[in-house]
Amino acid sequence: MPAATDELFLRRAIRLAMNGRGMVEPNPMVACVLVRDGQVIGEGYHARFGGPHAEPSALADCRERGNSPAGATAYVTLEPCCHTNKKTPPCAPRLIEAGVARVVIGCLDPNPAVNGNGVAMLRAAGIEVTNGVCEGEAKQLIEPFLRSVEHDSYLTLKWAQSADGKVAGPGGKRTQISGPESSRLVHQLRARSDAIVIGIGTALIDDPMLTPRDVPLRRKPLRIVLDPQLRLPLTSKLVSTAKDWPTAVIHDECRTNSRHAEELRERGVAVHCSEHFGRRGQLEAFAALQLIREELGVRDLFMEPGPTLAGSFLAVANRVWVFRSLTSMNDSTAPAAATIPAQLVPSGTIRVGDDELTEYRRPMIDAATDRPYAV
Ligand code: AOF
Ligand code: ZN
């Protein structure tokens, strides 16, 4: 099969996998496309956490369409699994039973229980396996999962700015900058994340709920406020809804036994302390991610920072989403957006309603070559 054809079907599988967005996390999005004689004869994706994997869904689709998978090529975005102590039966044996002749894989499953063992099982059964087709894109698809398997965090920053680069109104006053279509995307991304993170400045000025709204929600993301002096008001929406929506604050070390800490706890807020706040109250970004990972147990983070918090976390961000509106603020007292460092590379701009969304990504480095994957 020419390499270009493999790429074509693998890309189709990547696009299909994205239908699982918001429903499968923290597990990876995966899809499988079955092809014979250049024709798609069945396809499927992993649609929900704990539900059937991509491969059995594609095999079922193939049979429902009256086709036989025997002799077909299976294009899978992720190495088929082969381990048993989990929610669903392993996929590699299913492909073997179905008699597929060839399996083309985007990338290996970083899960140590699989990681090459799925490929070995397929090859031992006489199936031809090609791995690493569209590998950069396949890895990008599952980047938060990849990071978490590597015991790392995956951090997305998001903000909206006016055409002249301002993130709030005169004197920092809250102003709606982006349109409703952009808000909808933000709610989708909130719903996909393990946690939504803001600084105390935003909590005090905006009094946000930080919940994903009007989008399908599989689980409730943890709401985290970085609040060195523990100023989050008991009357805030975050605190008053903390019994229904998991909420945590991270403050500096000396407030642990304060009355306010106790009152927050009584209202259902998890109160954590970090010794990594600097003298001016800014939290050291690496230490914050580590604490959030290790004490709060969450890895895929969506941060909605003001410019100061953005300034501290851009150095460790994996991805940045900037919504730009068409209108200017024209006010010198309005705060300006943080500057995005050159290491975060623009990966695309799309129109969202009247706004433009630009995504910036930190290129993933291939451990084998020490160079970024070409995406
Ligand atoms: C595949 N195909 O579609 C997916 C895979 O708990 P389970 O049974 O859903 O298994 C989760 C693990 O399976 C996950 O950590 C990852 O290693 C793999 N995901 N594998 O062959 C799929 N979603
Ligand atoms: Zn599987």
Automatic annotation (TrEMBL):
Q: Which UniProt keywords apply?
A: Hydrolase, Metal-binding, Multifunctional enzyme, NADP, Oxidoreductase, Riboflavin biosynthesis, Zinc
User: Which reactions fall under this protein's catalytic activity?
Assistant: 5-amino-6-(5-phospho-D-ribitylamino)uracil + NADP(+) = 5-amino-6-(5-phospho-D-ribosylamino)uracil + NADPH + H(+); 2,5-diamino-6-hydroxy-4-(5-phosphoribosylamino)-pyrimidine + H2O + H(+) = 5-amino-6-(5-phospho-D-ribosylamino)uracil + NH4(+)
Q: Which residues form the CMP/dCMP-type deaminase domain?
A: 4-129
Q: Which PANTHER family match?
A: 2,5-DIAMINO-6-RIBOSYLAMINO-4(3H)-PYRIMIDINONE 5'-PHOSPHATE REDUCTASE, DIHYDROFOLATE REDUCTASE FAMILY PROTEIN (AFU_ORTHOLOGUE AFUA_8G06820)
Q: What does this protein do?
A: Converts 2,5-diamino-6-(ribosylamino)-4(3h)-pyrimidinone 5'-phosphate into 5-amino-6-(ribosylamino)-2,4(1h,3h)-pyrimidinedione 5'-phosphate.
Residues engaged in binding NADP(+): A160, T202
What does the record give as its pathway? Cofactor biosynthesis; riboflavin biosynthesis; 5-amino-6-(D-ribitylamino)uracil from GTP: step 2/4; Cofactor biosynthesis; riboflavin biosynthesis; 5-amino-6-(D-ribitylamino)uracil from GTP: step 3/4
Per its UniProt record, the required cofactor names are: Zn(2+)
Protein name as it appears in the record: Riboflavin biosynthesis protein RibD
The answer to keyword Secreted applying to this record is no
Cofactor mode of binding and number, as noted: Binds 1 zinc ion.
Give the family, as the similarity comment puts it. In the C-terminal section; belongs to the HTP reductase family. In the N-terminal section; belongs to the cytidine and deoxycytidylate deaminase family.
Task: Name the positions where Zn(2+) binds.
Answer: H53, C81, C91
Query: What biological-process GO terms show up in the record?
Result: riboflavin biosynthetic process
UniProt key word Oxidoreductase? yes
